[in-house]
Amino acid sequence: MEREHSFQASQKAYKEQFDVWGWKKKLPKEVAQFMTEKAKKRKREAQKETLFSYGGKKWTRARAEKSVSRSKSGQDPAELHYFNTPEGVTYATPPGASPLLQGEPSGDVSGDATSPTDSFSDAASIADTSSESSKESEVPEIRLSFEGKSRQDLLDKWTFPKVHPNEIPEGSKERMLNLVLDRLTQLQGATNEETSKVAYALADHYIKTGENARADGILERHTRAHIRTLGYGHKKTRQHILHVVELLNGWGRHEDALGMLSKAKEIHASVSRKDNPIISGRRTKSATRRDKDNEKTAQPGVGGDTGTSLSGVVDLVSNKPTRATIDLALSMTRPTVRANDAAAEGVLLAIIRACRRSGQLATEHLRATADLLGFYRKWQTDDVHIDAYLQAQTTVSAILSEHIVWDLESFHGFEVIEAALEVVSCLVRCGYKTQARVLFHKIQDVGIQVFGSSDERMVWTLISIGLVYQTHCSWAEAREWFEAAFAAVLTPGWDHKDGIVQSLQRALERQHFAYITDEGRPFRTVFGVNGLTIMPLRLHME
């Protein structure tokens, strides 16, 4: 530079510019170990040589091994997360013999990186070669263990820090989570529920340590794995996206959460399911599911059309109004509600009449009522059917007051409360706020009387009510319910480290509730066909 351009700069200035360009003179210990183990693995399993690109240079296995040998404190290869490629590293199978692959570590490879443009081109070409080589046919493996570790061994390794948090050295948790995530991906697949839990926990760990970019990388890779394996339309993919949205909300990144949800909806809506199997969830599973639903719906009737099958449902519930037949009728009617089929109204009214006659089907009665109110709202005829909303209020009040023999140990009692919450949430959405508030307080009184004010089922009831107001009204109206839930979990018997306690405290500080379990994973389920509720990892009953 001084000879050709008369430019003089200090050594520090050159080093700073090299950092801007991403040039690296030496390999970091972790990167060198990754290169060594990755090259060994590819040579062992696929008989492939490997050429790495990092920091503007090309690196062979021999050079990486030399860097590792110079390191004073090597890391146990068993603790490496091989498949989480360090940032800035690309690798490929070189096209033919090259001096770089002859095991000569003394060759001056740095001469290849004479400018940031050249290094960018090299990295791009290597990345292209890597993507091509990755497409080579390989026999997929189904393993029971990976490098001597079974699935249970890995799960025990993951749960140990939660049980013994003080026995884990500083900095070891990240390596452990990466290791478990990688091995579970190999054994169970990236979309497995337990694998996802570890991925969410790792992302949450990075957020707590201030490494937001790495947390985003984990979630993005996990999202790509779901889309690539299952497709956008698959239930697991949609649930994963909701989980990521809730994680972002829990981290206070509300704009990012809304942006991700908006983008996911846009992609899902913009591409035809029939023309693109990736969007449809591979092999058009949605169409297959619709066919199965049609077959099920046609069973009670004498024909396959909707009208005939729904009339068969009416006959079924009218002649034999049992819990099993009512549940079957509701499951068969809900697809017609979503499809705006006018015939659904008659079936739901028949179910409600049958439940009213029986007097012993409180949960089913409330669920059918909630579906009917949702149907009217979907058709935008709720102002025409004011009598239905008034009758719904009477039904909820009567069932809570008279029709239930409450039992602390029975799960049925809590099902009734949840079904009542469905109905009242419909009233909130349709503007009956005053009446809904009265009924919510009645539900609260019944829950406290039956379960106790600090029981977990009661806490989740209060949170569910708060979520209805948070979703459909405002935080100001939701706040009192979250405050009541928080007061309940401050009583003896609750651990301040419990996910519910921490989520409630964070909600009151940030004026937005989002529940995350101890594993970092949010849980939320659709609240019937209207509103929203969330459920903990374990059941409400011990």
Automatic annotation (TrEMBL):
InterPro entries: Clr5_dom, TPR-like_helical_dom_sf. Residues 86-143, 272-310 are annotated as: Disordered. Residues 1-25 form the Clr5 domain. Residues 133-143 have a biased composition (Basic and acidic residues). Residues 118-132 have a biased composition (Low complexity). This is Clr5 domain-containing protein.
